[in-house]
Design goal:
This is HMA domain-containing protein. 31% of the residues lie in helices and 30% in strands.
Length: 77
């Protein structure tokens, strides 16, 4: 499942602040935040649903995290 979130993370410093926590939470997933995009998009590619966990984590650190879209696709082997 690929989940797309709009965030308000603005800088690399802010991203580094939460990266270790996202790495721990999403240890079985691939994630990225596009700081160059106006919506500061967080993209999570995971085999399990991490929507609630990701939103809770960013909210805990004082960031907005709005789920925009989810895609379900079979894994590519």
């Amino acid at each position: 499942m690929i989940s797309i979130f709009k965030t308000n993370i603005q800088t690399g410093v802010e991203l580094n602040k939460i990266a270790q926590h996202l790495n721990k939470l999403l240890s079985d997933a691939t994630w990225s935040i596009d700081l160059g995009d106006s919506d500061k998009i967080l993209r999570i590619d995971s085999s399990v649903d991490k929507i609630g966990d990701a939103v809770s984590l960013l909210t805990k650190f004082g960031y907005d995290c709005e789920n925009l879209q989810n895609f379900y696709a079979p894994p590519v082997w």
